[in-house]
Amino acid sequence: MASVRSHENIEMMTYSEVTDVSGYVGNFKVKIRRKPRYVDESKCTGCGTCQEKCPIKAGNEFDVGLGKRKVIYTPFPQAVPNMPVIDREHCTYFLRGKCRACEMFCEAKAIDFEQTERIDEIDVGCIIVTTGFDSFDPSVMTQFGYGQYDNVISGIQFERMSNASGPTGGKLLLKDGSTPQSVAILHCIGSRDVNYHEYCSRVCCMYSLKFSHLVREKIPDAEIYQLYIDMRCFGKGYEEFYERLQEEGINFVRGRAGEITNIAEEPGEEGKLVVLVEDTLVRRKRRIPVDMVVLSTALEPQADAGEVARQFSISRSKDGFFMEKHPKLDPVATTTDGVFVAGCCQGPKDIPDTVAQAAAAAARVLAMINKGNVEIESAIAAVDKESCSGCKTCLTLCSYNAISFTEEMKVAVINEALCKGCGTCAAACPSGAIISRHFTTQQIMTQLEGVLV
User: How far apart are CA 58 and CA 68, in angstroms?
Assistant: First the structure.
């Protein structure tokens, strides 16, 4: 990230979001909303004094509710640029007009409460969409007790807890501050489930195995259980890691957990979380008492994926992820020329696959830039201006926004760079003024006659 920021040909627009996209390949116009940090980027040195002196704390989104942060804060460790932002919703100054401690202690005089948001409009030739994913909210699966029992946590929460920069300094702790002596890790929470997401999230098995290794490393004598449907260790060296964990004494239970309860029915279950599961390898039901339960949650599309898809004219698959042009022959392009996708916004994938896809998307864009011109499809629609009645029927039907209307000539005009030759406009035109090149009405009728004879 630091290399990207210092690159002479890259401009980073952090703490910003795209509000509108128009145009076509080579001629996109993108409007970007630059949200106010209330910190002057040209003056801030990232010393952190303002964060130390701020007296108010709020929930830390990056720690997924496990810890708190100051109202003036750096969004995440090692953020680029390394400068804070003020949380306007919780800042005492914005709420009551008082405090301004951060401004008083800032030697660089970088705090600026008068900043306002602004809209920048830029011209770009290509766009790469890498909006990432959301983690499935396991609270909807009430049988697992997430949000009901203190020591049932999600995979993201465990990740932050085990991280040295996390809210516990890398220590695995229960709600009462003690160390867990037994941990159950449940696979496929929200994925491979007809009630939630039918697809496999691909990464869950491996990050669950990683969690086991972290628990064993931090608490050597802990009892660790992996509850899985089937183990999918698909990558280079992954199967070897699975075998290594078996040698470390991890207990693997083949079966989907049915319920988590705190009701003790047998000796040794008092004060524990009890995982009810059917072990399919030994063909019997088991009750596994543990101190902590980690839910390996599914990867799902971002909550605003539908809005982003509309902005960038991207199709979505039935599971909500952005759809590529072709899963094998063109896995980084979309049906909109000049718009590419990479990473988990296109579908669940591991880090090496994400890096490879991102590099491929960047290479495609660089190839178009070096070439200097763009080849468009030949099988597109065309308007016979003499026959066009100006009814505007085609404008509302075009899903690619490729048709506009000229008030001077009172006829429809097709943008050849946007048109995909789907034929919807040609089929709907009441005047017969729109034709599909290479597939005239006479050609199609002749083919039909040949089929039916």
Answer: 5
Whether 353 maps to a domain, the answer reads no
Tokens of 99: 């405090």
Q: Out of 115, 149, 164, pick the residue that ends a domain.
A: 115
- Structural contact between residues 30 and 124, judged by C-beta atoms closer than 8 angstroms: yes
| CA pair distance 257, 260, nearest whole angstrom | 8
Quickly tell me which residue has 């969690």 as its tokens: 211
Q: How confident is the model at residue 268 (pLDDT cuts 50, 70, 90)?
A: confident
Does residue 445 lie in a domain region? yes
Mean pLDDT of 70-93: 93
Strand 251-254, strand 223-228: pairing: parallel
Question: Of 227, 204, 207, 223, which Cα lies nearest the Cα of 215?
Answer: 223
Secondary structure of 120-164 in HEC code, one letter for each residue = EEEEECCEEECCCCEECCHHHCHHHCECCECCEEEHHHHHHHHCC
Give the domain CATH number at 140. Answer: 3.50.50.60
Let me know if residue 240 belongs to a domain: yes
Backbone angles phi, psi at 40, to 5 degrees: -75, 110
Domain membership flag for residue 351: no
Residues 235 and 142 in one domain: yes
Count of CB atoms situated within 10 Å of the CB of 400? 20
Averaged pLDDT for residues 26-42? 94
Phi and psi at residue 242, to the nearest 5°: -60, -45
Q: Taking residues 417-432, what's their average pLDDT?
A: 88
Last residue of a domain, one of 282, 299, 316: 299
Domain count along the chain: 3
Q: Which residues are bridge partners to 406 per DSSP?
A: 411
- On the CB side of 362, CA atoms within 13 Å amount to 9
Residue whose tokens read 């491979």: 192
Residue 105 shares a structural domain with residue 171: no
